[in-house]
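so ive been stuck on this for like two days lol. basically i have the seq below and the ligand is adenosine-5'-triphosphate, smiles is in there too. i just want the complex predicted, nothing fancy, no docking runs or whatever. if the output looks off dont worry ill sanity check it later, just need somthing to start from for the group meeting slides
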Amino acid sequence: MRILLDKFSKSFGAVKVIEDMTLEIKDGEMLALLGPSGCGKSTTLFAICGIHKVTGGRIYFGDRDMTDLPSQERNVGVVFQSYALYPHMNVAENIAFPLRIRNLPGAEIKRLVDEMADLVHIGNLLDRRPAELSGGQQQRVALARALVRRPNVLLLDEPLANLDAKLRLEMRSEIRRIQLETGITAILVTHDQVEAMSMCDRIAIMNAGQIIQIATPKEMYRNPRTTFVAGFLGNPPIAFVEAEARDGMLAVKNADIRLPVPPDAVTPPDGTPVIIGIRPENLGPEGDAIIRGRVSFIETQGRENLYDIKLENGSVLRSIQRVRDDISLDDEVEWRVRSDRLFVFAENGERL
Ligand SMILES: Nc1ncnc2c1ncn2[C@@H]1O[C@H](COP(=O)(O)OP(=O)(O)OP(=O)(O)O)[C@@H](O)[C@H]1O
Ligand SMILES: [Mg+2]
C-alpha cells in the first residue's frame, strides 16, 4: 500500500515540529526515517498511524485520504521499542489479541496465530509468558501481533533499541525477511545508520523536522547532498577539512596540500571557501592526490586499523586500512586519496 504525506505539518502548541513535509513510500517498500534525536521521526510515525492529529496537510494510504480517520480504522501494525506485550497473557494470546477484539471465530484465530508464529519462528513458544522469553523472542511476538491483522502498513519505531548487539544483528535480518515475505509496506524509524542502510530499500534522512535527502542506501552513501548527510552515514565517519579554490585546485587551509576538483563537481572561482569531505576508506596508499600528515592515533580493529592523520593545520583525517606493521604512532606519512572519491561542499554545507 503506497503511503503519501502531502505537505504534512505538526505542531505542539506554538512549537512547530514538522513543517510541510512531503514524502511518498512506495507500495511494498521498506523506508527508513533516519535522523538525530528530536528531529521528528516518532512524531511523523504517530501521525501516520493516527495517534497524533496533524496540524496541516493530508495523509493518504493508496488513494484513500486517511487524515481524519481514527487510528483503529487505519489498519496499521505498530511495533515500538518497548514491545508492550501483555504480561499476563501467553504468546498465543498476545498474538491473538487484535483478532479477539474483532470477534473472529476461535478456529480462524488459531489458524492465523499459528501462521504468524511460523512466520516469525516462535511456533514452539506459544504457551510461554513474555517474562519467560528473551528480548529477541519478545520482539518476534510483538511483530507477529502487529502483522496478524494483515495491516496495510507496518510501522516500526526503534524496534531494536532494547536488544543487545548480537540479537540486534539477528533481528535486523529477521525483520527484513518478514517484510519481504509479506510484501508489506513498512517504515522503520531509527537513529542508527547501519540499521537504516542494511534493512531498507530507501532512506529518508531528517534533520530538525525536515527531510534533507531521500535515496537508496548506496546512492546516499556515494552521493550525499550535504555535509549533514555525509556525516550521518558511514562508520567510522567521514572527516572534513576547510579549503579554498586556487588556480583550479583546492588548497587546504594552512597546509601544503592541494587537491584536484573531483570530476563531477563544478570548479569554484578562485578564493571560494569550500569544505572537503574524505571518507576513511578512501585515504591510504592509493590515489592521485597526496596528503601529508602525522599519525596521531592508531586504533586496532582486528582485520583493519583506523589511523588518525593530523595535518599541518591541526585537522584530523581518518584512514582505514589493513593492519600495517610499517606504520607507528607519530610517523610522518605521505598518503593518497582518489580525487573522484572526494566530496566538495560549499561553506553552507551544500554539495558543489
Ligand atoms: N507530545 C508532545 N508535546 C510537545 N512536544 C513534543 C511532543 N512530542 C514530541 N515533541 C517534541 O517534538 C520534537 C520531535 O520529537 P520526536 O519524538 O518526534 O523526535 P524523534 O526524532 O523521534 O527523537 P528520538 O530519536 O529521540 O526518539 C522534540 O523536540 C520533542 O520534544
Ligand atoms: Mg522517537
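The chain has two domains: 3-223, 239-346. The longest helix spans residues 165-182.
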